[in-house]
Amino acid sequence: MKTIKFVYWQDKDFWLGYLQDYPDFMTQGQTLEELRENLKDIFAEIVQGHIPLVTHVGELVVA
């Protein structure tokens, strides 16, 4: 089982969010659980290569 982080917030009647490592793919849900399921679906699509041109977040070590 893999754990991935996501960023989320509530805006009126919807929960919005995106995967921390893939901020270009935002989704929403009427409940927090629905948002989580939508984020899992997006992750699966990315991993399976069904979404083209995926950008990534990296880290740099600087002095």
UniProtKB/TrEMBL annotation:
This is Type II toxin-antitoxin system HicB family antitoxin. It comes from Vecturithrix granuli. InterPro entries: TTHA1013/TTHA0281-like (IPR035069). It comes from the Bacteria.
